[in-house]
Amino acid sequence: xxxxxxxxxxxxxxxxxxxxxxxxxxxxxxxxxxxxxxxxxxxxxxxxxxxxxxxxxxxxxxxxxxxxxxxxxxxxxxxxxxxxxxxxxxxxxxxxxxxxxxxxxxxxxxxxxxxxxxxxxxxxxxxxxxxxxxxxxxxxxxxxxxxxxxxxxxxxxxxxxxxxxxx
Length: 167
Ligand SMILES: [Zn+2]
What we know:
By secondary structure, the chain is mainly alpha-helical. Helix content is about 45%, strand content about 10%.
């Protein structure tokens, strides 16, 4: 591991410990020392990005304290994530620009917010959001755009592109 990685992990472990000294802090520091290298390995392998570059990007994008940030939920396995180099590559692959809303099952041109215009039984237009509490109801896909991921660490949870339905 590079010096940057070793130093950063130690600094984060210390922060975790200082946030809750004693036994709990020790456990948290210990978890971080295992969790971060494990995630770096996984992401670096699947995305073909250098580990140091990844950790720098994660730290730059971190807005909350160490313990709240480095969680499995934020760094899920990416085996099933669709990976694209650029947004243009994503748009070329899913060129119809149409996505399937998991709630009303209609097509929407916005991959995050349903704009199908479907009116439900309460007379209200569907405005389901992929980032809402119930997400994509297990029917969406996750997308990484490397250009953006390297800066923000963002994994986009979106409605499923209609192109995937024919496959
Ligand atoms: Zn909808």
